[in-house]
Specification:
single chain, alpha/beta, seven-stranded mixed sheet, 13 helices, 7 strands, globular, disordered N terminus
C-alpha cells in the first residue's frame, strides 16, 4: 500500500444512492483521480469497476486498488472523452467528477494552484500545451476572450493586457508570477475569494479542453450504458453544470419539431429520463467537513429501459 493521502469524494453518499451498486454488475469511474468513488463502489457491492484517467500520476493508486480487488478492478489510461473507445462493453452505471482533482491541486509542482509557487503547467495528462505556453504566445485579444469565456472574468481584457505587458520583459514562467499580474488588476482583500481564481480556472480549462471532454464524455457514456443504467455527474462551476443540464435535457427530449406540430415527425427518440430536475447539493455537514464540496452539484440521468 502506498502512503497517498486519501481525499474525500464529494457527494459520495448521493452518488452511491444514485448508482445503487449491485453484485455482478459493472460500473465506471470515468475520473479516477485518487480513487475515492472507485473504492466506495467496490466496497458497497461485489461488483466490477472500470476506472479511467488521463493523469499518469494516478498509477500507484490504481495499482493499490488492483492489489486489493484483483479482477474486480480494471484501470484504463486515457481521457474520459474517449470513453466509448476505452470501454467497448455495456455497463450499469458511470460517475463523472468533473474538473481538477484535489490530488492535482495539492501537488504544487503541477502548477494548478495560485497558492503554491511552481512552474505554470496545469496539464492533467502531463503532455501537450501548457498554461505557460498559452500566456506567453497567445495574442492579447485571444487571451482576453479565453479568460472571459472559461473564467467568466469581467476584467479579462485588463488582465490580458497586463499579461502581454509583463511578458515583454521576461516570459511568465510560474504560478506566482501570473497571480501577481492578476493582483495588479484586482486587488486581494482579506476574507474575499482570491482574484486569481477565475484566470487560473480559464487557463486550466483551455489547457485540458475540459468542456470539450465533458461533451464527448457524456455522449460516449450514454452510448456505453445498458438500458436502465445511470450517469451521475458532479460539477463544480456553472460552465460545467450548464453543459450537463443541457445534455440531459436534450437526450430526454430530442424532438426538433415546431411546437405547433400536433405529433412528432422528426423521428428523434428520447434516450432516457432526467432524474434530477434540480441538482443535488452537498449538505451543510459535508460543506463544513469538506470545503471543496461547497460549489458541487450532482445531476443524474437514467437511460431508457
Amino acid at each position: 500500500m502506498n502512503n497517498t493521502v486519501k481525499h474525500i469524494p464529494v457527494l459520495l453518499n448521493e452518488v452511491l444512492e444514485a448508482l445503487a451498486p449491485q453484485a455482478g454488475k459493472t460500473y465506471v469511474d470515468a475520473t479516477f483521480g485518487n480513487g475515492g468513488y472507485s473504492e466506495a463502489l467496490l466496497k458497497t457491492a461485489d461488483c466490477r469497476l472500470i476506472a479511467v484517467d488521463r493523469d499518469p500520476n494516478v498509477r500507484p493508486r490504481a495499482e493499490e486498488l488492483k492489489s486489493v480487488y484483483g479482477s474486480r478492478f480494471d484501470f484504463r489510461p486515457g481521457r474520459f472523452g474517449d470513453i466509448e473507445r476505452l470501454i467497448q462493453e455495456p455497463v450499469d452505471g458511470i460517475v463523472f467528477d468533473i474538473g481538477v482533482s484535489s490530488m492535482q491541486v495539492d501537488q504544487a509542482e503541477r502548477g494548478f494552484s495560485y497558492n503554491k509557487d511552481a512552474a505554470l503547467d496545469m496539464r492533467m495528462s502531463c503532455t501537450g500545451i501548457s498554461a505557460a505556453d498559452i500566456v506567453n504566445t497567445y495574442g492579447e485579444k485571444e487571451l482576453a476572450d479565453l479568460i472571459y469565456r472559461f473564467g467568466e472574468e469581467r476584467k479579462s481584457r485588463r488582465i490580458a493586457a497586463k499579461i502581454v505587458e509583463a511578458r515583454q520583459t521576461a516570459p511568465i514562467a510560474t504560478t506566482r508570477q501570473l497571480a501577481e499580474i492578476v493582483y495588479q488588476v484586482i486587488f486581494k482583500k482579506p476574507g474575499q475569494p482570491d482574484p486569481a481564481t477565475r484566470t487560473f480556472q480559464a487557463l486550466r480549462i483551455a489547457v485540458n479542453d475540459e468542456l470539450g471532454e465533458l461533451e464527448r464524455g457524456l455522449a460516449g457514456g450514454l452510448s456505453v450504458l445498458k438500458p436502465g443504467g445511470r450517469l451521475a455527474v458532479v460539477t463544480f462551476h456553472s460552465l460545467e453544470d450548464r453543459i450537463v443540464k443541457n445534455a440531459f435535457r436534450r437526450n430526454e427530449n430530442p424532438c426538433t419539431c415546431p411546437t405547433e406540430f400536433p405529433v412528432c415527425v422528426c423521428g428523434k427518440k428520447s434516450q432516457g429520463t432526467v432524474i434530477t430536475r434540480k441538482p443535488i447539493l452537498p449538505t451543510q455537514e459535508e460543506m463544513e467537513h469538506n470545503s471543496r464540496s461547497k460549489s458541487a452539484k450532482l445531476r443524474i440521468f437514467e437511460k431508457s429501459k
